[in-house]
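Input (structure):
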């Protein structure tokens, strides 16, 4: 049996979490959204390969992901 989800996520928009939390970031070059923790020296867009420090204006934090344990969903 395989699982499509082992827990639930809750996204808090317009907020930042701790450095270890996954954040949703938008690249201003290609408008791609991706996940990354804040405790990295440099982030890189997986779509257009733009890279910069986390607090650079090329990347905008949309929110962070709160992990919650939930029921497993079999597929």
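Output (sequence):
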């Amino acid at each position: 049996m395989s699982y499509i989800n082992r827990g639930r996520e809750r996204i808090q928009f317009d907020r930042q979490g701790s450095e270890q939390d996954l954040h949703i970031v938008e690249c201003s070059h290609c408008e791609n959204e991706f996940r990354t923790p804040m405790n990295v020296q440099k982030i890189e867009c997986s779509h257009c390969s733009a890279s910069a420090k986390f607090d650079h204006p090329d990347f905008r934090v949309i929110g962070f992901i709160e992990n919650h344990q939930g029921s497993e969903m079999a597929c």
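Notes: Confidence is low (pLDDT under 50) at residues 1-5, 68-75. DSSP finds no helices and six strands in the chain.
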